[in-house]
Amino acid sequence: MNLHYQVDGQGEAIILIHGLFGSADNLGLLARALKEKYKVISIDLRNHGKSPHSETFTYREMATDVLAVIDQCDIEHFSLIGHSMGGKVAMAMTELAAPRLNHLIVLDMAPVHYHVHRHQNVFTGLQEVSKHTVNKRSEAETYLAKHILEPGVRQFLLKSYAKTDNGYNWRFNVDGLIANYETIMGWQDVPEFTGKTLFVKGQDSEYILPEHRESIAKQFPLAKAHMVAKTGHWLHAEKPDTVNRIILNFLQSI
Length: 254
Fold this sequence. Notes:
This protein is an alpha/beta fold. It has helices spanning 28-34, 59-72, 85-97, 120-130, 137-144, 151-158, 174-179, 181-185, 213-219, 235-238, 240-252, and strands spanning 5-8, 13-17, 39-43, 78-83, 101-107, 161-164, 167-170, 196-202, 224-228. The protein starts with a strand and ends with a helix.
């Protein structure tokens, strides 16, 4: 799995891992803040962005994909920052490369199996667009709007709606994501990781809840936590300056 990625800056390596339906660009505000002091590698996970598609989609496979990029870049030690699904990929990497990991930063995700289907309307909207011949993004948004009420969600998805030789198509693998949704929402516990770990929660988000503390403590017993007030799951987009400051402070702490 030869992932697409981009490299910015110089210094100690930091790997940025996006969430479901995203791409390397989703953490662009964070990358711009970090590249002044670090080498920042932004990755398109399999079935997303410009990376290849695959029928299989486990966290161990995705973690192995990311580690292959790091090895390809000849990097021995690195830090990981992952948002949402990318946070789970980052946590899964602790099982594969714990001695090489300087810092682990997880943005609004817990190491648990989520049992609520949160994306049915999104999948329905994506499938609706795929039924039609679309010549511009505004047409695609019209179809999305039949199922997805939030303009911000539609705009986020449309960032991955790209023009190809065969017209517009979704860059992410819609059918593959639907087929593997249970795996995406699921989780297999990783061995205890005692490296430097930070969980950053959006105050209004339901992805990290009090009932998740036991699972976090079991797998990441020395983890620290930080809550960002008046933000939801997209905390890094809602309050980028605050989140960037939290991350930089943690990276530079002893």
